[in-house]
Every structure is written in C-alpha cells, then in structure tokens.
Amino acid sequence: MVQPITGMLRRGLITDLSIAIGLGALMGNAFWYGYHVPRTNARDNYYKKLEEERAARQGN
Predict the structure, then answer these.
(1) What is the DSSP code string of 1-60?
(2) Max Cα separation, the chain?
(3) Residue 49 included in any domain
(4) Any idea what job this protein has (predicted)?
(5) Looking at residue 5, what is its pLDDT?
(6) I need a labelling partner for 44 at 20 to 30 A (CA). Which of 12, 13, 26, 35 fits?
(7) pLDDT tens across 6-43, in order?
(8) pLDDT of residue 16
(9) How far apart are CA 52 and CA 60, in angstroms?
(10) How far apart are CA 20 and CA 1, in angstroms?
(11) Is residue 45 assigned to a domain?
C-alpha cells in the first residue's frame, strides 16, 4: 500500500529551514568572532599605539 504524501512537504520544509538557519547562525558567528572582532581589535590597538607615540613626541 502507498502511504499518503501529506505532511512530508511541511516536515521537509521545516527541516530544511531549521538546518539553513542553524548553519547560517553558526557561520555568521564564526565570521564575526573568528575574523571581524580580532581584526577590529588589531586595528584599534594599532591606532591607540600611534596616538600614544604622537602624544609622547609632543610631551603630553
């Protein structure tokens, strides 16, 4: 006997969306905390060092 198809599309859609949202959030966090935050901190530290050197040269 052939089983009815009803519900399979909805179940598949929910599964696909859950996987897509989960992977998207995972990859977004990997980019943000693995690349963006370290690069931003490195940039900020570089400019802080430049400002400290400039202030030391001016005697402030």
Answers:
(1) -PPP-TTHHHHHHHHHHHHHHHHHHHHHHHHIIIIIHHHHHHHHHHHHHHHHHHHHHHT-
(2) 90
(3) yes
(4) Component of the cytochrome c oxidase, the last enzyme in the mitochondrial electron transport chain which drives oxidative phosphorylation.
(5) 62
(6) 26
(7) 677 778 888 999 999 999 999 999 999 999 999 999 99
(8) 93
(9) 9
(10) 34
(11) yes
Structure tokens belonging to residue 15: 């599964």
* Tokens found for residue 27: 């990859």
Torsion of CA 49, 54, 57, 58, to 10 degrees: -140
Say how many domains are in the chain. 1
Q: Is position 37 within any domain?
A: yes
| Cα distance between residue 10 and residue 16, in whole Å | 10
